[in-house]
Amino acid sequence: MTPPHSEDHDRSPEISATLSDLIEIGRDLWEAHLVSSHGGNLSARAGNGIFITRHGAMMHRLDHEQFIRVDQDGHSSESWHVHEPSLDMLIHLAIYRAVPEAQVVVHAHPIYAVARSLEWGAITPMNASGAILGRVPVLAPEEHEIPRAVA
Known about the structure:
Largest sheet: 4 strands, antiparallel
Order of helices and strands: HEEEHEHEHEH
Oligomer: single chain
Radius of gyration: 16 Å
Strand order of the largest sheet: 3-2-1-4
Shape: globular
Distance between the termini: 39 Å
Strand content: 15-25%
């Protein structure tokens, strides 16, 4: 049985278009072999909450149903959800609080960046696109400090 789509009224044409863009980004990341099938999570700001990929969502198999709406405290108002939001939801929410102009978060775990982070204290992108980031520190905070440290 398919769950009722009571949250569809919360999906404006703009948020639906944004989710479609995120679905394409997830597929592009996977097809370019930058991430594993479970190598990240995506979210979009929606009013006083966010739509975020569900726990266990596969980057190359996303669709609109893989996004769960949660409020600014991380609670879903939908009782029919059979899936939980991404385990990294608190990181996404912290970023949206710290960066009010942020509209989406693409939290990827690129295979080569993760591998390099195991040996280096920072990653300095070598191409022109990455140069705008400058030196990116590798964070190793205590688990309860991760959302604040990333944001």
